[in-house]
Amino acid sequence: MTDSIINRIVAAPPAPGHTITVARLDGSHTVDLAELYRASGRVAAALRREGIGEGDRIGILAINCLEWVLLDLAALRLKAVTAGFEPGKFAAEPALIERYRLAMLFTADPGAAGHPSVRAMREVERWAAGSDPGGAPGPVEYGRRETTTLKFTSGSTGQPKALAASVGSIDASLRAVQQMFTHGPGDNIFVFLPLSLLQQRYWIYSALAYGHDVTVSTYEAAFATMRRTAPTVVMGVPGFYETAKRHIEGQAARSGTGAAAAARRLFGDRIRYLWTGSAPASASMLRFFNECGLPIFEGYGLNETCIVSKNYPGASREGSVGRVLPGKRVLIDEDGVVSVASDDPVNVRYEYCAPGESQRVFGADGVVRTGDLGYLDEDGYLFIRGRADDVIVLDNGKKVIVRPIEEQMRLSPAIDECVVFCPTQTHLVAVVSPAGAPPDGRAIAEHLARTNRVLAADERIRTVVVADTRFSIDNGLLTSQYKPRRGQILDRYRTAILSSEEGVHVL
Amino acid sequence: MSSDLVSIVRHQLAAVIDDTPATEIDLDASMADEYGLTSLNKVLFLTSVCDEAGVELSHFTEHDVASMATARDVIDAMSAHADHSGAGV
């Protein structure tokens, strides 16, 4: 496999001159990428002495840190398989080690010490600082279908199911992204989402392969780090940019400067573009950043497909999620449901899933049924209209796609999030997460009236249930990527949704 | 406790949560439960407080931030550093 980017980055150190900066609130640490490579060799040698070899699984449960990066690269150099666990979602306990058959679990959680397979992240720091010039691992080479890491995604059993990611799928995504965005010596890509998400590690692989800087921070240090390091590219989900937009608007109003100046104060003055995906982005948010002079490019992909399509400079169309990447094919059935075929699939099945879950998503030929509704325009731009299971069929046979309605409701500054349900197949009820506390009921009602005026009769919302608290990751009503959890929201507000009396009605 | 610091915290929290005037913020209420402060908004709020108070955010760790549940927690945490940084006393 001569053209593999993964094979290239494990084979030899990059040319010196580009760095990785790892930032926490209390400081940052910058390492030349060539030294990062050498340190990962020392960590790999230590892992091998500990008995880790090809195919063994290493769990990593920690916030973003340099040791995370070193373990990932060391595992690649040994052909060991990483399993990244997000703190807060997983606990460092024996059940985790047993369930996912981990040879070792690295964690910063001191409470986990004592289990024979648990290692402290500090141990990695010690290994990296050691000297073992003769012990660096020998060369390895991956085939396209070999896997390097387990990704986790929510499962119907309540336990996350796993998806092992193939080298071919990682290579294909990195290559396509590089063709579109031509990251190079002047770039510094900023990552603050958890490294347990494989795509966040792509930007470290990209730095090693294409010679640019990369900055990794914790979630808490994100804004402070952006100002300090002035990145050229920021990797964020739409929820992050929505929050940033509200902050920028507030700062601009208070300071009397324009939004563009306030945006530069937050993101730094070197931004080349902002990357977003993983969840639907609102048109108003995308337009806001573009008008601030910070071009933002939305894309589309799932854990099961990796990046499918992406807008990029010179090939961007408003409302779309971009053109389909080389090596990917989007297939749209007669109901408008999107499936994705890949030359290099991420995988063709889940692990640790309930019976039938793999078959529901992966076709026999490896084609992934996304469950999203979409269409391709005449120029090949993909438009996603919502989830197939978000299509409500009314008792009169009329089909209603809820996402555009929810987006319309979210245009109100009084509304943070909106999820539409149809409790009795006759009318729509929206549950909104208020932007303020206490909620501005009058503003919500006025916006409901405005929204209903532009909707067809069957699409109008009869009642709005205002959530008693904002949807958040902490209260379980948003996913870690800020997507509303429909099932949990329905469970929490079922009584109010079914009541004909409660809630905000059109003024 | 610096009255300026209290004012800064009230003012910046009000700016993030909307709708509750700075003077009506209950310093002992949970910022997440009572005012719907999301984790990302909390980071922005703390960054803004540090900016205005002239306190380096680098005095704190991720663990410190996680343990700041109320506005008073923020004021207490900032107080130790604000005096040395020249924020109004």
List the topology elements.
The complex is a heterodimer of chains A (507) and B (89).
Chain A lengths: L4 H7 L7 E6 L2 E6 H17 L7 E5 L4 H13 L2 E5 L8 H6 L4 E4 L10 E3 H9 L17 E7 L7 E6 H15 L6 E4 L6 H13 L2 E5 L4 H8 L3 E4 L1 H18 L3 H9 L5 E4 L6 H9 L4 E7 L3 E5 L12 E2 L3 E5 L4 E6 L14 H5 L6 E9 L5 E6 L3 E3 L5 E3 H9 L4 E7 L6 E7 L6 H13 L7 E6 L19 H13 L9
Parallel strand pairs in A: 1-10, 3-4, 3-5, 4-7, 5-6, 9-10, 9-11, 11-12, 12-13, 23-24
Antiparallel strand pairs in A: 1-2, 7-8, 13-14, 14-15, 16-17, 17-18, 18-19, 20-21, 22-23
Helix pairs in contact in A: 2-3, 2-5, 3-5, 9-10
Chain B lengths: L2 H15 L21 H15 L8 H6 L3 H15 L4
Helix pairs in contact in B: 1-2, 1-4
Structure description:
The complex is a heterodimer of chains A (507) and B (89). Chain A is 32% helix and 25% strand. Chain A is α/β, with parallel strands linked by helices. Chain A has a 9-stranded mixed sheet, with helices on both faces. Chain A has a 6-stranded mixed sheet with strand order 6-5-3-4-7-8. Chain A has a 4-stranded antiparallel sheet with strand order 16-17-18-19. In chain A, strand 16 and strand 17 form a beta hairpin. Chain A is globular. Chain B is built from 4 helices and no strands. In chain B, helix 1 packs across helix 4. Chain B is globular and about 30 Å long. With 89 residues, chain B is an all-alpha fold. The chains are: A alpha/beta (507), B mainly alpha (89). At the A-B interface, helix 8 and helix 9 of A face helix 1, helix 2 and helix 3 of B.
